[in-house]
Design goal:
Keywords: Isomerase. InterPro entries: IolE/XylAMocC-like, Xyl_isomerase-like_sf, Xyl_isomerase-like_TIM-brl. The protein is an alpha/beta fold. Helices cover about 40% and strands about 20% of the residues. It has a single domain, classed as TIM Barrel, CATH 3.20.20. The strands form 2 sheets. An 8-stranded parallel beta barrel has the order 1-2-3-4-5-6-7-10, surrounded by 6 helices. A two-stranded antiparallel ribbon has the order 8-9. The radius of gyration is 18 Å and the shape is globular. The model has no long low-confidence stretch (mean pLDDT about 95).
């Protein structure tokens, strides 16, 4: 089992801390999703002028960069898409430097747009970004998220796009929590495209507590984590198990110093 975490979960850690804690806690890699307040990390010295120092420090710690998680959305106006293409190229350049295979993208919110029209837009933009990915020898991952959480919707996009440079990122939380989609269904429909996974746990809040759900440390909620792991294991999944602890967006949840090592301990026990 290969473990990683997104830096969304440690928004106040500097690079030295990120690397040191990853090694200390027993992670195998780091998924960069923002750094010290800047979400587009390619704009920062650590990933531009000083990038070779960053690469060396991560390598010396015995770690790898498992993915660059971008803010790119496939459902976008053409001017927005043009900017996203530039952003994708920047991340593709980083992938080449770090030896990283994946760039995560979102489908995006479609609002009042007809689903068929939104799908046409997303497929076209996915194809264009896939062409850029092909130029750089990387893959883009569309996440089961926002208005593209349903496994059948994601499969439809990937089939229509028909690009070998495109695959799926299974956020193992959102389909189950927001749609009631059973893990076995997700895998049956989308398994051929799943190359990367995000992990988190939550429980349903009572109506008197505001409803919705609350993120919590792994194993303290009701996401069927054991079932999901066994499903992946039995189908020979070989990708990363990446903690997406959304501390950046939910500052009230546990600090990374608690949540991160807990994740490692919990996930390692699943293997036994």
């Amino acid at each position: 089992m290969k473990l990683s975490f997104t830096t969304l979960g440690c928004p106040e850690w500097d690079l030295e801390t990120i690397i040191a804690r990853a090694k200390e806690y027993g992670f195998d890699g780091i998924d960069f999703r923002g750094y010290l307040g800047q979400m587009n990390i390619y704009k920062l010295p650590q990933f531009s002028t000083d990038v070779h120092s960053t690469i060396q420090r991560i390598k010396e710690a015995g770690l790898e960069v498992t993915c660059f998680s971008s803010s790119i959305k496939l459902f976008a106006t053409e001017p927005e898409h043009a900017k996203f293409v530039d952003e994708f190229r920047a991340y593709a350049g980083l992938c080449k430097l770090f030896g990283t295979r994946y760039i995560r993208v979102f489908g995006g919110k479609i609002g009042d747009t007809d689903r068929a029209e939104a799908t046409r837009i997303v497929v076209r933009h996915l194809q264009e970004l896939s062409d850029v990915a092909g130029e750089h020898g990387v893959k883009l991952l569309i996440e089961t998220h926002d208005d593209w959480t349903d496994c059948r919707v994601v499969r439809d996009v990937l089939e229509r796009a028909n690009r070998r440079e495109a695959a799926a990122l299974w956020d193992t939380h959102h389909p189950y929590r927001t749609l009631g989609e059973q893990p076995a269904t997700t895998w049956e429909v989308l398994g051929d495209w799943i190359e990367y996974t995000h992990w988190k746990d939550s429980f349903t809040r009572k109506p008197e507590d505001g409803g919705g759900f609350q993120y919590c440390p792994m194993g303290q909620g009701d996401i069927p984590l054991q079932q999901i792991y066994e499903l992946l294991r039995d189908n020979n999944y070989s990708g990363f198990f990446t903690l997406e602890w959304e501390k950046k967006w939910h500052p009230e949840i546990e600090e990374p110093e608690l949540a991160f090592p807990h994740f490692v301990r919990y996930m390692r026990k699943l293997v036994v």
